[in-house]
Design a protein that fits this description.
With 432 residues, this protein is mainly α. It is built from 18 helices and no strands. It has one domain: Growth Hormone, Chain: A (Up-down Bundle).
Length: 432
Amino acid sequence: MSTATSAGRALPGDPPGGRRAVAVWGIGVSVYFVAVIFRTSLGVAGLDAADRFHVNASALSTFSILQLLVYAGMQIPVGLLVDRLGTEIGVVLFTAGQLGFAFSPSYGMALASRALLGCGDAMTFISVLRLGTRWFPARRGPMVAQLAGLVGMAGNLVSTLVLARLLHGIGWTAAFAGSAMAGAVVFVLLLLFLKDHPEGHEPEPLPHQGAAYVRRQIAMSWREPGTRLGLWVHFTTQFPAMVFLLLWGMPFLVEAQGLSRATAGTLLTLVVLSNMVVGLVYGQIIARHHAARLPLALGTVGVTAALWAATLAYPAEHAPMWLLVVLCTVLGACGPASMIGFDFARPANPPERQGTASGITNMGGFVASMTTLFAVGVLLDATGDDYGVAFSSVFVLQAVGLSQILRLRKRAALRERMRLVASRVETVHVPV
């Protein structure tokens, strides 16, 4: 008899999902929620950090670059070794980093604190993705991933709305130290309630993870065109919004566009709200129409580039408010589009390589963000704060990523079809 399945039916051995899955997964995403609050907290404090530590644009960008450098560099090790213990250590590290940033008396100590934060942050998202695959059926994968991204953006919303007000109300140290307490809360929840997998769905034991195993896992994941396509989709789609929210959005809107901090904060909030809405829409579309993955990703890249070009090339000194609103709304689609990268890597790799493949994919957007953060800072210093020239670096990174997506798309599609056919053959059982 045949047990082959379609996209809308459960696969053999799939986790059951249900309320228990939602509750356990909710604990995992609460950790990611707090990690994103800490990660994006500098985005509303960039101008204050420049004054506090007496640094220029290049030095200011180093905060975010170092944080993302550590984050990106940790992705493959975390993907290989991700487990519950890694999540617990991650919470301790990013909480310590946020607390250290609150009390840093010097630029050097503040840099070290952001690096520590980035290290802990790196251990959260891949853990949440893996937790979703352990507790929910495979057909729910795209929606679960998009919901995780949506919760992360809710953390960004807390930064732009709550932390920004605390910063200017109670001061730097009290605001950052107070926010660090959220890390202690999720750490307790993690210890008390997180469970790695449902009963009866224990993962197969992994082989000894020596150097040869590590090299083989990385090589085999990278060999899959779907993994590389996922990385480049993540690279090309995520960074415009990440750079805007993480550091340069507030200075751009205040210094280049002449807006008040309150108005600029509202526009940053619009990016986050747009992200949350678009994430739900993209998740539903991809779950129902798998072929929509690439058109959605390419469409997001194209519209984002067009809006950035229109804003930077606007003939007047300041772009009109309606154009800035549209730009921020479109930037909100960048995060959900980057999640599509995981939907290319996931079907390209077997369960034992999911962590490694997700880690490789997740590096893409953060490498692009680091590069752009650095380029914008250097160009601002070199041009006397010409934001038009500085933000033109966005187009260079988009062109690089787009060329790789177009190069890999057919190869990845062919390989995915071959794996799908092979899996259907394996699930057909003929009675003797």
